[in-house]
Specification:
It is built from five helices and 13 strands. It has about 260 residues and is α/β, with parallel strands linked by helices.
Length: about 260
């Protein structure tokens, strides 16, 4: 966090980012529970960047899992938003053919308004998860003869399937899922004879990484909770054992006082 605008009001998202830093620090043993709770209370009570800055100032940066910093500027839609991915312009590729072989269109490429593909005794993969789009609505035309093709779309894209199958078929499972505002519409059409065209929805690489990090944090939080529970149980057992020893000592002292002295 910089000190350029300490009086700028912090948002809920800014406070959550600082809270995530604190949770990671607790899981890594950089903070004990008392410090974590004190700093977390200060985080949610903070109103400006100047109040948030000191909370994570002593936590290291540049480790394997660096702490995110609070942004001092409010950016517009981030990289990869739908508005940025519907670019217009010339397509990277407009067709693909596989005859007793295969093809792939994946990664960063620009999908045309109409993409034609043909597979005979072969197969192909058309992956739109990292793609840009030449238009708000694109058509993926698939002709599969004794072969198969698979169309992969990211979450948020509306899918319409209009293909015809003869002793084959088109996958309609992703139809009917509402698209995100501003997201492209993908129409899968064509013909399948003794073959098939699959349509599936998969998260992007960035989304998979986000989910992986989220699961990692959840595992660390569960591990920390178990550690705290075990420590609490040990303290309870030791306290009970101490009370038992004290009671035994008191009982022995009382019996010793009541025992009559032997006279010589």
């Amino acid at each position: 966090m910089t000190d350029d605008a300490p009086d700028l009001r912090a948002s809920d998202a800014d406070r959550e980012r600082v809270a995530e830093v604190l949770r990671d620090a607790l899981a890594e043993g950089r903070l004990d529970m008392a410090e974590f709770e004190e700093r977390l209370d200060a985080t949610y009570a903070a109103r400006t960047y100047g109040e948030l800055a000191p909370i994570t100032k002593d936590l290291p940066v540049g480790t394997a899992a660096p702490a995110p910093k609070v942004s001092m500027t409010k950016e517009p839609a981030g990289a990869g938003s739908w508005a940025e991915r519907i670019t217009g312009g010339e397509a990277t590729s407009t067709w693909a053919v596989a005859v007793m072989s295969g093809f792939q269109r994946k990664g960063r490429w620009r999908v045309p308004k109409r993409f034609n593909s043909f597979a005979f005794w072969g197969g192909g993969e058309i992956d739109l998860r990292e793609a840009d789009f030449a238009d708000r609505e694109v058509v993926i035309n698939c002709v599969a003869v004794m072969g198969g093709m698979n169309v992969v779309v990211p979450p948020g894209v509306e899918v319409v399937v209009r293909g015809i199958g003869v002793m084959g078929g088109f996958d309609h499972r992703e139809e009917g899922v509402p698209g995100d505002p501003g997201a492209p519409r993908v129409i899968v059409t064509g013909f399948a004879f003794w073959g098939g065209v699959g349509v599936e929805r998969k998260p992007t690489r960035a989304e998979r990484q986000r989910l992986k990090e989220e699961r990692r944090r959840e595992r660390l939080e569960r591990k920390e909770a178990r550690r705290e529970l075990n420590a609490s149980l040990r303290d309870d057992v030791m306290d009970a054992h101490r009370r038992m020893l004290d009671a035994h000592r008191d009982d022995r002292d009382r019996h010793g006082e009541r025992r009559p002295r032997r006279e010589d």
